Amino acid sequence: KNEVEQSPQNLTAQEGEFITINCSYSVGISALHWLQQHPGGGIVSLFMLSSGKKKHGRLIATINIQEKHSSLHITASHPRDSAVYICAVRLGGGADGLTFGKGTHLIIQP
Amino acid sequence: DVKVTQSSRYLVKRTGEKVFLECVQDMDHENMFWYRQDPGLGLRLIYFSYDVKMKEKGDIPEGYSVSREKKERFSLILESASTNQTSMYLCASTQNGEAFFGQGTRLTVV
Fewest 10 Å CB contacts: which of A102, B30, B35, B76? Predict the structure, then answer.
């Protein structure tokens, strides 16, 4: 069974700091998602990765398939980045369901 | 441009009631999923469906059933609600690896 581990579980930082959230998984995957969940519950997909690196604004996601590891970086963090960030992986072989990490609760203080 | 819509944001039901949670997607996706999200446990898969009238059990199907009579609609049913089903329920649809989530339904069973 694939396990998805995220670290840290909780992170509090000051506005402007560079943030890194890590995700490790235990079996081969076809894709990895980084998701953002704000208070109130709705989840938004930030990135879907199968290799390399993607950038969107101040957010950068990287994945190392050999090491089974991904990172989400936030540059110049802002209080509006405060949210729960969830890593989710999709197995290969046609299955389209996701296995989720438990999430990282990020608070950016002004 | 709402893509996955859950019928209620908040619900309060009594123990023993039959509860319907509705999810509709407008992207003609074949794959739809119901998850519950609890503190410290992350998102766990209850049921999923790959096609109309087709359903598969996820990791925690006990106490739940589902219905998929039309491609765009996937319903989660609690036959006899219990207090341990108090949770946040999230619906998702996927196609070609892209995942879209509803806003979530926070269900309280009293």
Answer: B30
